[in-house]
Amino acid sequence: MTDVASTSGIHTDELDAGVRPQDDLYRHVNGTWVAATPIPDDKARYGAFTILAEEAELAVRDIVERSQQAAPGTEERKVGDLYTAFTDEERLEALGTGPIEPLLAEIDTIDSVEDVLRSVGRFERLGLPGFLQLFVDNDPGDPESYVVFLEQSGLGLPDESYYREDRFADIRTKYREFVAAMFPLAGFDDAGARTDDVIGLETALAAQHWDNVTTRDSQKTYNKLPWSEVAALAEGIDLRAWWEAIDAPAGAFETVVVREPSFITGLAALLVAEPIEAWRNWLRWQVVRGSAAYLTSAFSATNFSFYGTALTGAPKQRERWKRGVSLVEGAMGEAVGRIYVQEHFDETSKATMDELVANLVEAYRQSVTGLDWMTDETRARALDKLDKFTPKIGYPVRWRDYSALQVSADDLIGNVRAVASFQVDRELGKIGKPIDRDEWFMTPQTINAYYNPGFNEIVFPAAILQFPFFDAQRDPAANYGAIGAVIGHEIGHGFDDQGSQYDGDGRLENWWTEADRAAFEERTKALIAQYDALVPTEVPDGHVNGALTIGENIGDLGGLSIAWKAYLLSLDGQEPPVVDGLSGAERFFLSWAQAWRMAIRPEEAARLLSIDPHSPNEFRCNQVVRNIDGFYDTFGVTEGDSMYLDPAERVAIW
User: Fold this and answer.
1) Which CATH number belongs to the domain containing residue 106 in this structure?
2) CA distances to 1, 178, 551, 583, 631 from 475, in Å
3) Residue 145 has what pLDDT?
4) Does residue 211 form part of some domain?
């Protein structure tokens, strides 16, 4: 990293002198920007992440539009043809409901539970919603092998709580109106009765769902069962009809992980008890809802009126080209990413990131070594896990092969179904094969990062390595406060309430002594209580769910705490320069706050408060620093200041 700071990395002209950092760091840094920045009509929120995402979106648009002229048969041309099919609105209007009529006709012939199961299985292969979501990952109990996971599904609303909590009564009314409006578009009469069937079944399915706090529990959701035991859970029906219709490879479902076993039992009871006509209407709804974005403008606009405006508050649907870019990225993201990296990624950033990651890991090592609440036995296992972390930066070492995927420039629904089938084959084809530790689960053009406990890896796509998170030419303090904290956050997920249950090889295993786990949970419970008390500005009648957000809150707190230690280590005892009138410590914490700036619509804030495992951005900034002594020293925070938290109440985990 450069020893001479050219810029502070802080937009000092945006700092709000009317708000003291001692009272509200988030608004001191971001209040002026938020007040002056309107949320675009096609967005529910707008901030540092979305600004970079827009830049990446423009770069990808250029790539896909050039790909429309690529040589036929090439991977680039597949990208272009997929985009062409989506943007040919005239053809979509002419086709009307034609693309979904064969599936709707199939549903008309259903007259048994077995038929329902087979249709849901076939629809799974076509990318349509069902009542079970399957995915493939490495086995938490045997991380060197792949296994199929089965997860509860079947809801049109974001979460089971939407079907039962009073605060969502208005959303339920709008959802019913939405369903009733979509059925006539698809050519159905008696929309009221069909809507009653859909809402009734979804409400019954939601009653069988585990809540989103329980589904975070790695132990409770790891239920590895031979198929005979899965069949026993589904008393009265034969679930084989479902997976046989998916056309899975032999042996793929021999042993599976059922994340929510009681849901299987509840689903089976509903399939037996509810009339077949009700299930036919529910299936019709899955076809209509799952296809709406790829049909006429009437379907697309009506779909957006609920999932966009009602749920998130966004008044305007995104332009057609933006939605086309999203489709291409979801279908062939690495094909686009390969070109994006060639054209937009500075390889020198990788070397700087390597240094940052190494410093963050060393800071974690020193922190774990010095913990006063952890015994030597557990400490040795924690350090072993840290030593086995695998960082991935920028892009995959090996790109995904799309040669088996066939697309056409004049068949949008056919392309969407082909992509879904390709993905099903790719995922289920992993069963029985060696673990591919080179695989990425995020594209290089994604503005995000992740930790994968089964692989014990931290992954930083190329696109996030930009201002305000990272700039190889700016003062190191700002990089440590932003991308350094992101790195620390992802490492921290390896030691959060769930990640800490996996060892260094990705195995779900208790490597803690009983006393150490109790000491850890004492600290996490205190953090949960802190966040439970927080009320977001945009949702004055709501509270943060500390239990739902605890993993991310641990990641934030550990991430910034360790980034602060890593920054101090990087100074090697030297005094950092003052840049733009700011000390190194000030630049560190201001950069942290700057990265979390966001303007958000109240509807979106309420939606995220219910389902998002991340806390609202204002608290990701403020509540974290309230627990870090370095923040108090830097800004002279004292009792009486709004950001002050009594030392006895501050939580330090790592």
Assistant:
1) 1.10.1380.10
2) 9, 51, 30, 11, 19
3) 98
4) yes
